[in-house]
């Protein structure tokens, strides 16, 4: 970053990323992210453009702001430009401004001289940025929230690590599976964070390259199902979902979908069905739904709700057709869907599933399966869709009309010789009301989480104020 870009990066609420394709649009991600990990961060950045080389240093320090009791955010920054005639760097700002900011940097950073600060650019190169976090946060026991000792090649969240002692084999497999480890292991989380990465791109953690993990490589009895999301009758996109059993099934009690958005993981192992379908895992890239600003969830739009309904159906269908392959009792196909169910499927934009053969792999490359598995899939694909899917196809092709996008005003016309199950309609209405209640509770939970975070900040401020007053009292020899 050049000096101006550095200033914007260190400022709150500034962002030039107006495109929906860009990562970060609110101008607070870097600041809130670093401050969540530690109290202080110092940034070094080299920039080379049109033969002009600049280097900038900026400090974002919670400790500095609290100790100085400042009522506004002050970010000290110094910048230099390489002078080709003298072969050295010159100061870009006025001498007074430079010395004032430099004194703050030296007082509140881990470096005691200007030379030590400038030495940090030696391993950056002519173009690059280095961020150093210090004064990391501690938990209530006084220990660091981040664990650097358990694994010398990893950084973990200390409070979430599960200790495996004298436990059953199944419990050990579950706790040591990557689908659980990603919750506290940075290396495991980074390995599944991106669906694809360029060959020239590397993520290095504590000196070791992070190996990308293709979740589909951990599946068996893989199938691909096509889903065409629709909104008010207009087709948005086509999504190919990869679904299968984890290799460790049925020993693992893990299930859910890994939903990516523009190549980045948003929802890892998102459970859309009950715990009965253990071991069923899916992968898809849902670019047609909008993620929340923190990239940890999706906006609860109608498109997203329709996707959730379809993934739940997809999971149950896969379980009914394949559970016997991992040792469970074979499930019989369900009865033919009623005209009401067919109409509801049509109203939610659910398309009939398309099962591809094993050679089709548009999303991820599956593992090579055993000969018996291949014979099973070949035989199954030769007959086309499963009996359950055939029943649904017959149902959705029945004469059901009059479905609109507004569920409050939609009308349904059925053939005269068919009777609508009133009890089913009531259950659907009750289900819709319960779903609305769930959304209200989720919003309330988010508000409470914001309040908790605000109170934690107040507690930290009170602790710092207490330490400051205590130090002042001790200096006056009152105690």
TrEMBL record:
Give GO terms for biological process. DNA repair
Q: What is this protein called?
A: Morc S5 domain-containing protein
Q: What is the lineage of its organism?
A: Eukaryota, Viridiplantae, Streptophyta, Embryophyta, Tracheophyta
Q: Does the keyword DNA repair apply?
A: yes
Q: InterPro entries under this entry? A: MORC_ATPase, Morc_S5
Tell me the ranges covered by the Morc S5 domain, including all copies: 184-319
GO cellular component, alphabetical, reads: nucleus
Report the source organism.
Lupinus luteus (European yellow lupine)
Sorted keywords for this record are: Coiled coil, DNA damage, DNA repair
């Amino acid at each position: 970053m050049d000096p101006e870009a550095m200033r914007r990066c260190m400022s709150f609420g500034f962002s030039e990323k107006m495109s929906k394709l860009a990562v970060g649009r609110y101008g607070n991600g870097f600041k809130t992210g670093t401050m969540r990990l530690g109290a202080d961060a110092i940034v070094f950045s080299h920039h080379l453009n049109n033969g002009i080389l600049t280097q900038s240093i900026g400090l974002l320090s919670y400790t500095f702001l609290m100790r100085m009791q400042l009522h506004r955010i002050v970010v000290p920054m110094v910048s230099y430009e390489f002078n080709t005639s003298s072969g050295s760097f010159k100061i870009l700002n006025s001498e007074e401004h430079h010395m004032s900011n430099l004194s703050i940097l030296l007082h509140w950073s881990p470096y005691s001289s200007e030379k030590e600060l400038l030495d940090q650019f030696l391993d950056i190169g002519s173009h690059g940025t280095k961020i150093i976090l210090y004064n990391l946060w501690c938990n209530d026991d006084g220990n660091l929230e981040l664990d650097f000792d358990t694994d010398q090649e990893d950084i973990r969240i200390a409070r979430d690590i599960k200790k495996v002692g004298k436990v059953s084999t199944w419990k050990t497999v579950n706790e040591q599976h990557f689908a659980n480890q990603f919750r506290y292991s940075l290396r495991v989380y980074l390995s599944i964070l991106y669906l694809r990465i360029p060959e020239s791109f590397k993520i290095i953690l504590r000196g070791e390259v992070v190996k990308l993990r293709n979740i589909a490589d951990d599946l068996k009895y893989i199938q691909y199902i096509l889903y065409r999301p629709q909104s008010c009758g207009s087709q948005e996109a086509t999504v190919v979902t990869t679904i299968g059993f984890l290799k460790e099934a049925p020993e693992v009690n893990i299930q859910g979908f890994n939903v990516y958005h523009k190549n980045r993981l948003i929802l890892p192992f998102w459970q859309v069905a009950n715990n009965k379908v253990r071991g069923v895992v899916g992968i898809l890239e849902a670019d047609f739904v909008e993620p929340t600003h923190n990239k940890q969830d999706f906006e609860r739009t109608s498109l997203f709700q329709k996707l959730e309904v379809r993934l739940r159906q997809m999971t149950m269908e896969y379980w009914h057709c394949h559970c016997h392959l991992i040792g469970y009792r074979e499930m019989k196909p369900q009865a033919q869907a009623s005209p009401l169910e067919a109409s509801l499927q049509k109203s939610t934009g659910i398309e009939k599933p398309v099962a591809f053969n094993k050679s089709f792999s548009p999303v991820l490359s599956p593992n090579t399966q055993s000969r018996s598995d291949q014979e099973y899939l070949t035989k199954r694909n030769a007959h086309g869709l499963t009996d359950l899917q055939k029943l649904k196809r017959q149902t959705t092709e029945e004469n059901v009309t009059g479905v609109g996008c507004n569920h409050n005003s939609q009308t349904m016309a059925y053939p005269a010789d068919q009777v609508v199950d009133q009890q089913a309609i009531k259950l659907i209405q009750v289900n819709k009301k319960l779903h609305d209640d769930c959304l209200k509770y989720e919003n309330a939970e988010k508000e409470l989480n914001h309040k908790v975070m605000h109170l934690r900040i107040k507690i930290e401020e009170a602790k710092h104020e207490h330490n400051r007053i205590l130090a002042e009292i001790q200096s006056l020899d009152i105690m």
